[in-house]
Amino acid sequence: MMKAALKARATRRAVLAGIAAASCVATQVAAQGAGQPYYAGKRIIFLVNYAAGGPADIEARVVARHIGKHIPGNPSIIIQNMDGAGGRVGTRYLGEIAPKDGTMLGMLTGVAWPYASDTKPWKVDFKTYEFVAYQPGTTVYFMRTDVKPGLKSPLDFAKAEGIVSGGLSAESSKDLLLRLSLEMLGLKYKYVTAYRGSNAARHALQTGEINYYSESPPSYRALVEPNLVKNGVAIGLFYDTGWDGKQLTTPLQIEGLDMLPYHELYKKIRGKEPSGKLWEVYKTIVSLAHAMQRIAAFPPGTPKGAVDAVTAGFKGLETDPEFAAEGRKTFGFVPAYRSGPATNSTIRNTLVVSPETKAWIAQYVKDANKHSGGN
């Protein structure tokens, strides 16, 4: 008897919960139909696919502090970090598991290259995500000054001995470019990868576990330069240029940095421009990885109302003086996201790597995994 009563009460509660949920949905639909903004009374989770304290996280938090006021409905923004597998864990979670109602936006870094170069299909094709904005970028390379025989200028890089390069995952664009930059100059090195994020790798460099690493300009300017370079622990070496398929381009983010791009440092050291297979692969990687270093995306099937509202948010940042001021103070430049009606087609058309390059990279990664030391 008692079991029957409990079961009846549980059934009533389930029915009432269902009615309440349906009523809530109906109310939201009615409110939006009556002209209420899509995000009225809502919040958005910014899913960052790297650990807290790294460049992706630092920049996402600055964006989060300012974008809400430009999104109709003024939603609150919170950050959730989900790192692992060179950014793949968070990126795949977004497509496979995250809600598709506009309440979770991926603030994704470094995912264009691993997707385009991957030889295995993803469970949810990244090209089907709803892309809202992207930002070109670059990477700044640095090394501990106590590497033998001692580094006093970037030109000493070519004389370095006992190099230990850190990394996040063997197939990531970061790791590939770190290795290529050393191998093009003929430098011998040990390779240690699988750090959980740049925060962990930076700590490893501080403690001497590794001595060569790279970070994107936000964390280089905010953390590496003031805490390592100015204290003489490390020296900035060079940065990656962009490549548009025809010519090398200068990234916005290096404004004010007293540093050469890799190909110019290479020329000063070797007396000639870099060339050959490694250089061609290097340019292929930067043309994709840096052209779309940061990507803001919703899961596939997210309503157009959410996409349009957040697109308006990114457009609003373009003329936001408070966002600009914090960007200059934190990074030394203003993050410039590109957003608009053509964003989806632009990104989807760019996510392509030739089968030949994929095969070459796959072997290069396989060889790296044989010899890397892990961490």
Q: In percent, how helical is the residue content?
A: 40-55%
Distance between the termini: 61 Å
> In what range is the share of β-strand residues?
15-25%
Number of domains: 2
Fourth-level CATH superfamily of the largest domain: Bordetella uptake gene, domain 1
Overall mean pLDDT: 89
The CATH architecture of the largest domain: 3-Layer(aba) Sandwich
**H/E element string?**
HEHEHEHEEEHEHEHEEEEHHEHHEHH
> Major sheet: order of its strands?
2-1-3-13-4-14
* Number of DSSP helical runs: 13
Low-confidence stretches are 1-31
- E-strand count: 14
Overview of the structural elements:
The chain has 375 residues and is α/β, with parallel strands linked by helices. The protein has two domains: 43-136 and 290-356, 3-Layer(aba) Sandwich (D-Maltodextrin-Binding Protein, domain 2), CATH 3.40.190.150; 140-288, 3-Layer(aba) Sandwich (D-Maltodextrin-Binding Protein, domain 2), CATH 3.40.190.10. The chain is 44% helix and 16% strand. The protein is built from 13 helices and 14 strands. It has helices spanning 2-33, 55-67, 88-96, 112-117, 173-184, 198-206, 217-229, 262-270, 277-289, 304-317, 321-331, 343-350, 355-371, and strands spanning 43-48, 76-81, 104-109, 130-135, 140-144, 163-166, 189-192, 212-215, 234-239, 242-243, 248-249, 260-261, 294-298, 338-339. Strands 2-1-3-13-4-14 form a six-stranded mixed sheet, with helices on both faces. Strand 6, helix 5 and strand 7 (189-192) form a beta-alpha-beta unit. Helix 2 (55-67) packs across helix 7 (217-229). It is globular. The protein starts with a helix and ends with a helix. 42% of the residues are buried. Mean pLDDT is 89; it is low at 1-31.
